[in-house]
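PT: before anyone asks, these are the final sequences, not the draft ones from last week. 500 residues across everything. Please model them as a single complex and drop the result in this thread when it's through.
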Amino acid sequence: MVEDIHPPHADAELIAQAKAGQIEAFGELYQRYLDPIYRYIRIRVAEDTIAEDLTELVFLRAFEVLDRYKERGSPFSAFLYQVARNLLVDHYRQRKREVPLEAADEIAVTDSNIDEHVIRSARIEMLKHALADLRPDYQEVIRLRVVLALPTATVAEWMGRSEGAVRVLLHRALNSMRKRLVEGDEGDESLRS
Amino acid sequence: MNRSEVEILDNGLSRIQSDEVKTEDFLQEFPEHEGTLGVLLGLAEEIRAHLTPVGPDDDFVSTSPARILNLLRAKRKVAHKRERRWAWRPKWPLKLAWRPAYLLITALLAIGILGTTAGVAWASTGALPGDNLYGVKRSIEEARLVLTWTATGDAALLAGFADERLNEIEALLAVGREDDIRLPLAGYEDLLTRLLEVAEEAQHSGKPGSLEHLQTSLTQNIRTLERVQAQVPFNAQEAIRSAIEQSNHGREVIEYIRQGGHPSDIAPGQLKKTPDRPSGGPGDHGGGQPATKTPKPKPTKDKTQKP
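LR: through. Structure below.
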C-alpha cells in the first residue's frame, strides 16, 4: 500500500492533461489512488458498498474542483484526502452517526476457531473503543500512519503538518492509546476481583 | 519522550511496515529504548493487524474506473451542449450597461431621436397646405392646445393659429397655389368658432384686457382677408367674404362679452351680420354697414326676443 502513493512529479503531467479536459488522464490518476483512498474511507464507514460509493464520489468531486488544485509542494494524494475528509463529514452529517471501525474487525477476522474469534473480537472492540476515545488528531495520525501505513511524509502532507510534528503526534497518540488500554484492563481486573 | 525516541519509533514503524525488519530485531538495535519502544511498536503492530481494512473488491477495481470515466464524459457532453445553447447570449454583466461607452451611445441615440423630432417640428413650421409636413404642423398646434390649462391660454393660441391660417393663405397666393386656400380658410373659420367658445371663460378667469387683444387680432384678420379677397379668383371670393363676415361677428360677440353679456343670451341672428356689399375703403372694416349696436345685457329674459 505504501508504494501506491506516487511522488508528485509523476502525477503532474496527468493532472495537467486532466485539467485540459483529457478524461483518460484522470482515469489513470483514479487507478493510482483508488486503493489508498478506498482504504481510508473504509476504516471510517460501516460497509463496503458505502466505501465504494464514497470512493467514486471522491474522485468525481476531485475532477469537478481540479482547477483549484495547484501543485505547490502538496501532492495530489493530499488533495484527494481533503476531498475524502470533506465527503465523510457530509456523510456523517446525513447519517448522524459515526461508525469508524465497527465493521473493520468483521472483515479482518478470518479465524476459524470460534474461541479465538471471540477473544479476538473482544480485543478488537477494546482497540476500537480506545481509539475512539482519543483526540481527533491522535485518531487521524493512527489511522493514516499505523492502520493505512502511509509514509510519514504523506501523512504530513495530508494533515498539513511537518514530518517532525507528525512523528511527535504519533508518539503521543500511541502512548495515549496505550494508557487507555491499560486503564481498561485494570478496570476489567477490578471487576473480576 | 525525547527527540531520538520519537524518531526511532517512526523509523522503526516504517521499516517494520515495509517488512524490512522484524520488531524484535529492530529493538535489538536500540537496547536503551527497548522497554518503551517495544510497547509502542507492539501496540502499533496490533492495531494494524486488527483494524486494517481489506482493500477494494477486485470487481470494483476493474469496473469502477470505466464507470467513472463514462460518467465524466456524459457530464462533459451535457456541459458542452449547454454552452452551445447559450453561446448566442452575450455574456455581459449587468453593470456593463453603466460603462461610459455604453452610456455615451445611449445618450447619442437619445439626442438623435430628440433632435430628429425637434427638427421635424421646426421644419413643419413653414409647411403650407398640401405639403408633406403640414399634417405635422397642425398636430403640433393641437398638442399645444391640449397642454394649455387656462382659457386665456387657449384663446391666445387659437387667435395665433387663426393668424397663421391667414398667413398660409397669403403664402399660397404668393406662389400661385390658389387652389389650396380652401383648407386653411376652413381651418380659420373653425378656429374662430372655438375661440368664441372660450372667450367668455377667458374674460372671467384670464388676464384683464385679454379679450381686447382678441378683438384687435380679429380686426387685423379682417384686413388680411380683405387683402386676400382682391387676389383670389372669382370662385373663391365668396369663401373669403364668408370668412370676413364671421370675423366681424366674432368681434361683436367678444365686445358683448366684454360688456358682461353671455354668448348664450344671444339668439341666432340677433347680432346682425353685415350685409353683402363690395369691399370698401380703409374705413370699412366689416365689409358692409357698421355693426349694429349690441344690446345691453338685461337681468331678465327679453320677451321680445325671438328664437
